[in-house]
Each structure stands twice: as C-alpha cells, then as structure tokens.
C-alpha cells in the first residue's frame, strides 16, 4: 500500500515537473482549481520551454516501462494525435535512453556462464537500440555469424511490479466508483496486461515465440523471422540473427527504393489475418520499431519481424465469432452483428436486438464506401464504446491484445499507403477462411489432425471390443434378472388378489373366536371354548399358513 501511495505521488510530481497541464482543458475547470494548479505548476516553468510533445515523451520515459509501452501504442495513431506529439512519441519505439553497456556485458556473462571474449568473436558494448524493457548489442559468433544480443534492463522487474500494483489499485477504484466498472472489467484487463508484460522479462519465452513464428512462415514470401541461437538464450539474454532491412517507419527510404507501397500495405493486412485465423498465434506488439522491410524485390516487398515477446492467440470459438462479426460488418448486416453479440453473451440476453442493431448501424454505416485515409478506426471504436455503454456490453479481456494490434495495423497502414481500404483487403481472406471451416478441406484437416491419436488407439481395439461385448452380455444378464424379478412380483400380486377373500374370512373367524369368549356365554363354557378354539385355528390358517 505504501509503495502504491509513493508511486501515486511520483506520478503527480512528474505531471507537475514536465508541465503536462498543457493537456488539461483549464477553461472547463472551476476558478479555484485553476488557481491551485497554477501555484503547484510553478516549479515546472522551465520545463515548459520545451514543446509539449517532448515534455510528454520525457515524462513517460521517467515513469518507466509500463508508461513507455503506453506511449508506443499512442505513437502509431497519427490520425488521433497532432504531428508534434506523434513525432516525439515515435522516439519511444527504439530510442529510450540506454543503460551502461558494461552492465549489459556483465549480465550476459552471468547468464551464459562465460566471459564475452570466450562467447563471441566480437561484442559491441555500445547499444544498437534501446527500448523500455531491454536493449540490444551487435556481436559476432565464433563461427562468424552476425548476431544481436538482447539484454534485459537491470532491476526492471521491481519497477514493473510497482506499476502493476498501481494499475490494480486504479482498476479496483474504477470498478467500485464507476457505473461502467462491472462492464469494463478493469481488474481482468490489468491482470491480462500483467501476464503479458511480465512475460517480456523472460527472454526464453520470447525465444520460443520467435521460433514458432518462424516455423509458421517458413518459405513464406510475406514475412521473414530471424533465426534464434538457442545455445545463447537465457532468461536475461537472447541471441538472434542480425537482419538488414529498412525500418517500416522510414517512408522516404522506401519510396527512394521504389517499393510498391500499396502491395506493402496489403501484405501487412494479409500477414495479420493469417496469423490470427490460420495460425491462431499473432505478433501483438507490431509497432514500427519492431518491423522492417526487405526491399530486395521492390514490387513484392517482404516484412521482417523482431521482438516476439508479446504474442496473442484466440481459440476456435473466438476466431469463428470474430470472423462472422467482421464479415457481417463488411456486408452491412447489422442484424447479424447484434444477434451474434447477444448469442455470445457480450450483451445481456434480454437486450432488444432491433434497438442494438439500429445503434450499431448508426456508428458503422458512415465508414463504408470510403478509403482508409478518410476513416478513423479510433472514432469507430469510440462510437462502439458509447453504444456498448447503452447496452451494458462487457469488455472481453481475451480480445484486448487483438484490438490493440488492429489499432497498430491501422496506424501502420495510414503511414504506408493512405488510400488502402483495410476492409476490402481483409474481406476476401475472411470469406475464404470461413469457407474452409465448413468445407471438405476442413473435414480432411480434422481427420489428418486426429489420425495420430486414432493410430495410437488401434492396438487397443481388440481389448476394447472384447470389453464392450462383455459389458453388453452383463447388461443382458441384468436385464433378464430384472425381468424375472418383475414377473415374480406380478405373480405375488395376482396371488394376493386371489387370496384376499380368504384373508377376510380369517379376520372374521378370529373376531368370532373373540366374541365367543364373551362372559355372557359362560353358562355355555364348554361349547364356547371349543367353538373359540376352532375359529381361532381356522383364522390363523387363512391369514398365515394358506399361500
């Protein structure tokens, strides 16, 4: 709790120090708040000499990796940000202040258990690039391969855990005091983000992610993923092939090399949807600092992806639901969109479909028949968010990474080819994927997928068949025994009905035997005793002995 409070104070002080009041609409605040803030902001007057974008970037850098990540996401949304802010935040991609190269060298030696001189033919202590979680150094292996060595920042986990604690505190606060707290599920969202960012601290996981992504695009002309050198990978150190390519954000160089920008933008969309729907494993940190372009074939440029620390995946149900929703959007079938939302449980079951359909139409209809440059996907999301509030739609944490990646794709597409129509590019891919899910090809794929398991069960078939026959035989024996018992019970019931008159006569006889012992018959004692005895014996016979 004390750490969280301290972090709150630091954030507040950073806001004052870097004069981020420039982003506060002072004209909407009461006069006494404006006066108070004016006095508090006095210490940061000198910082105000820098432009607002630079102040925001410096503030995010000073607050640590969680906030730097936030700035990286914002930097891809030039359609939502002024140019001065977007230009400064773009520096967060790979120009975060580095830490001492000698410290990086010691981390490498500690994790790999040998000196740098024994491990590499050369190792440059000057960082090639520096990011929020790690920095990279160029090196050459003893075998001659050019590589880059990625090293986690020292003591970074402590800072991240403090920030995660702060985010949890804010999430619980939002959940309690906000009317949308339950619907937005802020605690679940923070938990998902915690899982993601903590994974970035373990480079063995990033190495595994890189290896899987590389296999998924083996021999592909769309995407190249550098080779991992597994013998040099540990928790804090990762060694991969050094690639040469043009940073995707270097638009001028791409133009100078006559790269087909339309093809490049379309291939980016195709790569994303291939990862999501065909591989169920997608790069979820696709900001420009992690993407390069191979321009050796300008007409068919090829992407190069690095930094696979944050990866996302969707299960079959999520993919099917998402594809149907997107296709319904493309076809302007808002009724289907509304029904899918209700059927999936995203909105309450009692939601009036016609009203939800109308609300979705009012948000999405204006986006069609326009090129990407005229459409702000951010504004569409904002409209959908407002619609969600009206119908109590819940945030789905498992799709947060996907939504973030879609935003990055849009931002990247705007920079590469402003006239790209994202929807027209994606629609054929989704239609083809949906057809594959229900056609003969899908059946064949399922058979192929299950074949190894079936083959493993073949030797057990005789035993399984024998066990099944034994089970059937026992079932038949039990059924025969049950049938016999039921028939016996029926006979007993019939016999009981047949003997009922005799039982009744026995009761009458016992009653008569008792009456015959009445004192008024004492004068006929001998006759009464004899008659009572006879009637009693006859009654017992009828009630007990007669079957």
Automatic annotation (TrEMBL):
* Main localization, broad class: membrane
**Which residues carry out catalysis?**
285
Q: Write down the Pfam families for this protein, in alphabetical order.
A: ABC1
Q: Which GO terms describe its molecular function?
A: ATP binding; protein kinase activity
The pathway it acts in is: Cofactor biosynthesis; ubiquinone biosynthesis [regulation]
Q: Which InterPro entries match?
A: ABC1_dom, Kinase-like_dom_sf, UbiB, UbiB_bact, UbiB_kinase
Q: Which residues form the ABC1 atypical kinase-like domain?
A: 91-340
Q: Which domain of life is it from?
A: Bacteria
Which class of enzymes does this protein belong to? transferase
GO BP annotation list: regulation of ubiquinone biosynthetic process; ubiquinone biosynthetic process
Q: Where in the cell is it found?
A: Cell membrane
Q: What is this protein called?
A: Probable protein kinase UbiB
Q: Which organism is it from?
A: Maribrevibacterium harenarium
The taxonomy runs:
Bacteria, Pseudomonadati, Pseudomonadota, Gammaproteobacteria, Oceanospirillales
